[in-house]
Write a structure and sequence with these properties.
By secondary structure, this protein is mainly beta. The protein has no helices and 11 strands. The strands form 2 sheets. Strands 2, 4, 5, 6, 9, 10 and 11 form a 7-stranded mixed sheet that branches.
Length: 116
C-alpha cells in the first residue's frame, strides 16, 4: 500500500530553519513528481515546491525561492524540504504529494508554526 509520511515539523522562531522529511513506501516512485504543499488556517492548500523523482529537476513557488530547498534521497525513498529564514506567514500544515498524472498520493501533513 502506497504511503507518504511527513515528519520534522514543529515550533520555530522567525528567522529559524526546519527540515521536513517525507518517507515514501509501498511502490516505486520512479516517474513521479514529488511535491510539498501547505495549508494555513482558513486558506486554500498552496503549492510550495516539486522535484522530479527520476530527473531531480526542481520548481518552486515564487515566494519560497531562495529560502526553501527541495531534495530527494533515492536510496532512502525520502523527499526533504529545507526551510530557512522562516516567517510567521509560513505557518501551516505541510503536506507531501506524489503525482504522475494518473495517480495522486498525499501524506497526513506535519504542522509548522513560526512565532514572531
Amino acid at each position: 500500500q502506497e504511503r507518504l509520511v511527513e515528519s520534522g515539523g514543529g515550533l520555530v522562531q522567525a528567522g529559524g530553519s526546519l527540515r521536513l522529511s517525507c518517507a515514501a513506501s509501498g511502490r516505486t516512485f520512479s516517474g513521479y513528481y514529488m511535491g510539498w504543499f501547505r495549508q494555513a488556517p482558513g486558506k486554500e492548500r498552496e503549492f510550495v515546491a516539486v522535484i522530479g523523482w527520476s530527473s531531480g529537476n526542481t520548481y518552486y513557488a515564487d515566494s519560497m525561492k531562495g529560502r526553501f530547498t527541495i531534495s530527494r534521497d533515492k536510496a532512502k525513498n525520502t523527499v526533504f524540504l529545507e526551510m530557512n529564514s522562516l516567517k510567521p506567514e509560513d505557518t501551516a500544515v505541510y503536506y507531501c504529494n506524489a503525482n504522475n498524472g494518473w495517480r495522486d498520493y498525499w501524506g497526513q501533513g506535519t504542522q509548522v508554526t513560526v512565532s514572531s
